[in-house]
Amino acid sequence: MNFIPRDKKYPKIFKYRLKNEKQMEHRSIKLIYGNYGLKAISTGILTTKHFEILRLQIRRGLKKKGKFWFRKYPYTFLTKKPAEVRMGKGKGSHFQWICPIKIGQILIEFRFKKKTLLEILLLLRKCKKRIPLKCQIVSRSAKLLKNNLEKNYKKIIK
Known about the structure:
With about 160 residues, this protein is α+β, with helices and mostly antiparallel strands. It has one domain: Aldehyde Oxidoreductase, domain 3. The protein has helices at about 50-60, 115-130, 155; strands at about 35-40, 45, 65-70, 75-80, 95-100, 105-110, 135-140. The longest helix is centred in the middle third of the chain and has 15 residues, at about 50-60.
């Protein structure tokens, strides 16, 4: 899976800054494809390396017993000048693709087949550790989980 866009609109852009860190997302805040997901609680930036690490981690954990969808992809990039180069002489060359994340966005969605609730929770926790943002595990079912799996961890183990 390649996380790099095929074409870019502009050759180089201004440096991306998260203008207001407390700004909430209002579009991609609900689960659409899967039953479980990871929701961002803090703002930050994900690179293509983060997406690739997540993909490998999920593939190892799923073992063809489910599906997953990335709701966000890298769509902008950063530039950087080479080491030991003097100031001036224009903007640096392309460095890496990034995806800015706002509070409340769903990052990944999952749908599992023949997995226990404990296995699902362990896989989601592993994915959560790989992301450099604060995340929350969310689900569609409102009975046992109440939209937060980790608060009800003791109920799941029993």
